[in-house]
C-alpha cells in the first residue's frame, strides 16, 4: 500500500512478550507436576507390609540409597519460585509498556485543562521543564522528552491535528515488526560474540553430545544389556546345549556388567584380597579353577562367589562385600531375561538349520528357575516355606510331621486357623501376623488352557502342519482367599458357577452376563419374538451352511407341491401343520443366524481389545513381591510357553507376562507335527519371583492327515485355472513316508 511505513522493533521490547508467554506455558504444568508434595503415610498400607527385621532393614536401605532426594526437592521448589517471581516482574514491565503506549494525553502530562489558552500551556511547560530538565538535579530525561512531545502537540498546529486525528503527534504510526530477542543480541557491537556462541553450541557442543549418546547406545541391547554380554551368552549356550543350573550361574556371573573395565559403577577394594579367599573356602565347590574365559577372570569368580553366598544366605561384611552383593543381585533379573531370549533365539536358528546344536528345554527352564532363586535368596531344592518371614530350617519339621504332610504354600493356606497357629506355635503373635500377611498377599492363580485351530472350518480338528493356537488365561487372586473352610467353599462355588464368564474345556455351561455389548440393530433382531428369545438362551449347535439351508429348502418344496393338490383334499389340520413347520423352520434359521452374528461380533470385539492393548504398550506393574534379600522393589512377572517333554524341545517362544493384576490372557501359536498321530504337549507357567508356583497342564492333540488338494476340475469350476505348484505344502506329508502297514 502506497505511503505505508515499516520499521523493526530494534529496542527488543517484543522479547519480553515472548518470554512472558514462554514462562506461562512452562511454569503452569511444571508447578502442577513437579512441585514436591508430602505423601501422606497410609496407615492401612503400612499395616499390610511385613514388619520383619529384614523388610525393615531393606526399607531403610532404600531410603538411604536416595540421599539426594531432600536437596533435589529443595532445588525444584527454588527454581519454580524464582520462575514465578520472574514472571511477575515481566508482567509488571509489560503492563508499563502498554500503559505508556495507550495513555498519551498531553493535557494530563502538562497538568492543564482541556481548552486552555496558549499562554497557560507555555506557563505550565516552563514550570515543569525547570524541574524535569536533565541538567537539573531533579531531572528525568524520559519524562522531559514526554513533556516536550506534549507541549509540541498543543502548540504546533500540525502536531495538534495529528494528535486529534491519529492519537500521535508524529502522525500515523508505522507498522512495527518485533523480534523476540533481547536488544543486546541485535546490536552491531556484539555480533562477533553472538556468532561465536552460535558456533560453540551448534558446531561443537551438539555434535559431542550426539556422538556420546550414540557411542553409549550402540553398546547396549533393547533391554539395556551390553551387547558383548549377549554375545557371550550366545557362545556358551550354543557350546553347551544341555546346561545344568550351576553352569547357568557361572555364565550369569561372567556378565561384563560386573567387570570394572566395562562398568565404572563396579567397586574394587583392597580388602577383597583377604575377604574373597575366605568366602570361597566357606562356600566350597565353586569351580574357581575353570580355565575358560571369561569364567576364569577375577571379576567373574567374585560375582559367582557372591551369588552362591546370596543363595545360601551367608552373612557378609556390610561395609564391603554386602554392598557388592546388593549391586550384583539387583542386576540379575534383567540379565536372566536376556539369557532366556538368547536360548530361544538359538532354538529358532536350530529349527531353521543354521546351527547344528539345539539347546534343550532343560537349559531354558534352568534359566527361569534361577530368577526366583535370586529374588528370594534360596536354592531350588530348599523348602518354599523359607520364603515366609521368621521361618527357618528348625520350623520345617513341623510342616512334615507324622500327622501332616504339608509340602506347598497352598496346602498350608487351606488349613484352618487353629491348625496353622499350632504348626507355628514357636512364633510370637506378632511374628505369626507377619507370616500371615506375606502368605495372604502371595499369588493364587487359576491357570486355564484352551486350544483351537483358527481360520478353519472345524477348530477342534488338528491336521498335519496346521497352526495351533493355545489361549492361556490367568486369573490372579491373593492366597488369602484360601484361608479357612469358608473360603474353600466359596472357591468350589466359584468353580461350579464359572465366575468371570470362563467355560472350561469339555463343559456345556454358557457364560452368563459376560457377553460384549452388541449394536442396537442386533438387539432388536434378537428380541423380535418370545420364541426366539427362549431358543437363543439354550445351547444351539453351530451349523454349517448346508445345514442352515436345509430347512428353507423343505419349505420351498412344500410350497411348490401345494398348488398341484386339490384344495378339497387338504384338511384344516394339514394346513395348520404346514404353517407350524414353516414358522418353526423360520425361527430356527433366525436363531442360528443371530447366534452366528453374535459370535462374529464378539470375536471382532476381542480383536479390537487386543489391538488396543498392543497400541497402549505393555505395563510393568502387577503386584509387589515379598523379597527382603533382593535390594529393590520387585513386581510379579510370569513366563508361559508350550513344550514337548518327550523330545525336550520348545514349541513356542516364552511369553513374558508383566501386567497380571487380576486377569491376563495371551496366545501361544505353534505348528502341528507333520506326521499324523496322537501327541501330548505341556503348557507351562513359571514365576520369576516365587519358588514353588510352577504349573503345568497337558494338552492332547489327535493330529490327522491334512485333506488333499481340490481336483483340477473342481478347482477350475470354482476359481478358474491356477499355475502349477501354486499350492505345494512346505511340510512333509505321509505320502513321502513309508506306510506303517508295510
TrEMBL record:
It is a multi-pass membrane protein. Residues 713-722, 731-742 have a biased composition (Acidic residues). Residues 105-167 form the J domain. GO terms for molecular function: protein transmembrane transporter activity; RNA binding. SMART domains: DnaJ, Sec63. One of its GO terms (cellular component) is Sec62/Sec63 complex. It comes from the Eukaryota. Residues 494-605, 704-742 are annotated as: Disordered. Keywords: Chaperone, Endoplasmic reticulum, Membrane, Protein transport, Transmembrane, Transmembrane helix, Transport. CDD domains: DnaJ. GO terms for biological process: post-translational protein targeting to endoplasmic reticulum membrane; SRP-dependent cotranslational protein targeting to membrane. InterPro entries: C2_domain_sf (IPR035892), DnaJ_domain (IPR001623), Ig_E-set (IPR014756), J_dom_sf (IPR036869), Sec63-dom (IPR004179). PROSITE patterns: DNAJ_2. PANTHER family: SEC63 DOMAIN-CONTAINING, TRANSLOCATION PROTEIN SEC63 HOMOLOG. This is Sec63 Brl domain. It comes from Popillia japonica (Japanese beetle). The lineage of its organism: Eukaryota, Metazoa, Ecdysozoa, Arthropoda, Hexapoda.
Amino acid at each position: 500500500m502506497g505511503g505505508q511505513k515499516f520499521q523493526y522493533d530494534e529496542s527488543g521490547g517484543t522479547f519480553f512478550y515472548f518470554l512472558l508467554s514462554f514462562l506461562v506455558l512452562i511454569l503452569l504444568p511444571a508447578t502442577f507436576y513437579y512441585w514436591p508434595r508430602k505423601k501422606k503415610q497410609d496407615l492401612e498400607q503400612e499395616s499390610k507390609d511385613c514388619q520383619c527385621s529384614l523388610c525393615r532393614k531393606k526399607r531403610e536401605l532404600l531410603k538411604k540409597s536416595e540421599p539426594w532426594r531432600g536437596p533435589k526437592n529443595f532445588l525444584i521448589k527454588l527454581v519454580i519460585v524464582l520462575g514465578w517471581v520472574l514472571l511477575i516482574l515481566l508482567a509488571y514491565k509489560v503492563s508499563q509498556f502498554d500503559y505508556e503506549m495507550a495513555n498519551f494525553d498531553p493535557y494530563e502530562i502538562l497538568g492543564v485543562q482541556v481548552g486552555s489558552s496558549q499562554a497557560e500551556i507555555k506557563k505550565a511547560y516552563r514550570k515543569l521543564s525547570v524541574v524535569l530538565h536533565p541538567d537539573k538535579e531533579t531531572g528525568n530525561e524520559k519524562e522531559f522528552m514526554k513533556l516536550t512531545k506534549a507541549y509540541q502537540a498543543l502548540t504546533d498546529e500540525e502536531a495538534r491535528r495529528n494528535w486529534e486525528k491519529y492519537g500521535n503527534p508524529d502522525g500515523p504510526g508505522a507498522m512495527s515488526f518485533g523480534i523476540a530477542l533481547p536488544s543486546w543480541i541485535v546490536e552491531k557491537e556484539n555480533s562477533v560474540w553472538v556468532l561465536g556462541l552460535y558456533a560453540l553450541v551448534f558446531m561443537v557442543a551438539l555434535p559431542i553430545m550426539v556422538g556420546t549418546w550414540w557411542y553409549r547406545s550402540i553398546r547396549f541391547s533393547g533391554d539395556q544389556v551390553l551387547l558383548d554380554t549377549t554375545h557371550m551368552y550366545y557362545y556358551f549356550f550354543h557350546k553347551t546345549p544341555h546346561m545344568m543350573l550351576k553352569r547357568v550361574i557361572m555364565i550369569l556371573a561372567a556378565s561384563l556388567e560386573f567387570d570394572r573395565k566395562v562398568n565404572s559403577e563396579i567397586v574394587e577394594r583392597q580388602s577383597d584380597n583377604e575377604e574373597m579367599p575366605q568366602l570361597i573356602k566357606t562356600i566350597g565347590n565353586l569351580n574357581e579353577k575353570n580355565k575358560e574365559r571369561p569364567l576364569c577372570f577375577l571379576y567373574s569368580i567374585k560375582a559367582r562367589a557372591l551369588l552362591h553366598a546370596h543363595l545360601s544366605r551367608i552373612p557378609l561384611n556390610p561395609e564391603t562385600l554386602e554392598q557388592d552383593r546388593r549391586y550384583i543381585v539387583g542386576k540379575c533379573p534383567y540379565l536372566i531375561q536376556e539369557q532366556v531370549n538368547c536360548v530361544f533365539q538359538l532354538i529358532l536358528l536350530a529349527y531353521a538349520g543354521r546351527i547344528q546344536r539345539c539347546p534343550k528345554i532343560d537349559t531354558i527352564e534352568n534359566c527361569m528357575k534361577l530368577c526366583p532363586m535370586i529374588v528370594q535368596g534360596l536354592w531350588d531344592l530348599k523348602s518354599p516355606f523359607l520364603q515366609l518371614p521368621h521361618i527357618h530350617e528348625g520350623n520345617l519339621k513341623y510342616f512334615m510331621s507324622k500327622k501332616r504332610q504339608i509340602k506347598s504354600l497352598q496346602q498350608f493356606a487351606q488349613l484352618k486357623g487353629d491348625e496353622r497357629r499350632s504348626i507355628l506355635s514357636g512364633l510370637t503373635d506378632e511374628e505369626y501376623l507377619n507370616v500371615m500377611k506375606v502368605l495372604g498377599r502371595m499369588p493364587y492363580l487359576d491357570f486355564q488352557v484352551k486350544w483351537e485351530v483358527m481360520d478353519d472350518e472345524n477348530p477342534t480338528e488338528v491336521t498335519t502342519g496346521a497352526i495351533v493356537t493355545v489361549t492361556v488365561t490367568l486369573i490372579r487372586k491373593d492366597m488369602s482367599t484360601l484361608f479357612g473352610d469358608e473360603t474353600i467353599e466359596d472357591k468350589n462355588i466359584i468353580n461350579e458357577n464359572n465366575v468371570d464368564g470362563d467355560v472350561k474345556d469339555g463343559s456345556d455351561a454358557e457364560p452368563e452376563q459376560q457377553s460384549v455389548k452388541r449394536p442396537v440393530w442386533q438387539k432388536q433382531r434378537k428380541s423380535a419374538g418370545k420364541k426366539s428369545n427362549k431358543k437363543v438362551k439354550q445351547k444351539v449347535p453351530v451349523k454349517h451352511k448346508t445345514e442352515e439351508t436345509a430347512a428353507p429348502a423343505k419349505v420351498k418344496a412344500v410350497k411348490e407341491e401345494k398348488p398341484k393338490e386339490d384344495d378339497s383334499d387338504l384338511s384344516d389340520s394339514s394346513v395348520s401343520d404346514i404353517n407350524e413347520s414353516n414358522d418353526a423352520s423360520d425361527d430356527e434359521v433366525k436363531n442360528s443366524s443371530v447366534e452366528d452374528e453374535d459370535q462374529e461380533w464378539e470375536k471382532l470385539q476381542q480383536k479390537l481389545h487386543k489391538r488396543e492393548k498392543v497400541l497402549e504398550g505393555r505395563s510393568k506393574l502387577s503386584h509387589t513381591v515379598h523379597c527382603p534379600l533382593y535390594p529393590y522393589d520387585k513386581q510379579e512377572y510370569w513366563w508361559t510357553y508350550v513344550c514337548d517333554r518327550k523330545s525336550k524341545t520348545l514349541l513356542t517362544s516364552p511369553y513374558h507376562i508383566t501386567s497380571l493384576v487380576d486377569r491376563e490372557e495371551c496366545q501361544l501359536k505353534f505348528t502341528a507335527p507333520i506326521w499324523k498321530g496322537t501327541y501330548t504337549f505341556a503348557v507351562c507357567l513359571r514365576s520369576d519371583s516365587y519358588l514353588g508356583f510352577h504349573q503345568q497342564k497337558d494338552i492332547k492333540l489327535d493330529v490327522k492327515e491334512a485333506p488333499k488338494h481340490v481336483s483340477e476340475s473342481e478347482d477350475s469350476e470354482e476359481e478358474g485355472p491356477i499355475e502349477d505348484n501354486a499350492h505345494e505344502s512346505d511340510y512333509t506329508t505321509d505320502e513321502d513316508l513309508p506306510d506303517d502297514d508295510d
